[in-house]
Design goal:
The chain is about 40% helix and about 20% strand. The protein contains 4 helices and 5 strands, in the order αβααβββαβ. It has a 5-stranded mixed sheet. Strand 3 and strand 4 form a beta hairpin. The longest helix has 18 residues.
Length: about 130
């Protein structure tokens, strides 16, 4: 097992600070990499690494990259949800690091949803008609 370096700790601290900024409304977009067991087995860590690399390469500072668990659609992993203030969430499916980079460059930076990778739009609604 690799030892954690000071640089690793700095990255963790930065991620936590970014998460807090999004909750407070200071981030334009939140990108969620679904990293349940199925997602990790399908390559979600590589997706996360690709997205974090894009943030570093582009210098974008109004995007939060974070994780969550499984959303119950294991056969379509790796999955990523893009949440943008004032817009419906977009769930992307069956991603590769190259597809994730394309989503970052074209959707997150340029605003163009990458339809060929979209699994779902919006949030699931409950039986009473009220949304989450």
């Amino acid at each position: 097992m690799a030892k954690i370096t000071i640089e690793d700790l700095k990255k963790i601290k930065e991620r936590v600070q970014q998460h807090d900024l999004f909750r407070a409304g200071h981030k334009r977009i939140k990108v969620i990499v679904h990293m349940g067991t199925c997602g990790i087995a399908s390559g979600a860590k590589d997706i996360m690494d690709a997205l974090l690399d894009e943030v570093g390469e582009t210098g974008v500072d109004d995007v939060l990259i974070t994780t969550s668990g499984c959303i119950g659609i294991c056969s379509r992993e790796p999955l990523v949800t893009v949440e943008e203030h004032g817009k419906e969430p977009i769930v992307y499916e069956r991603l590769t690091p190259n597809k994730a980079r394309q989503i970052f460059r074209r959707h997150i930076i340029a605003g163009e949803v990458q339809r060929e990778f979209v699994m779902a739009r919006g949030r699931e609604q409950d039986d009473t008609g009220g949304g989450r």
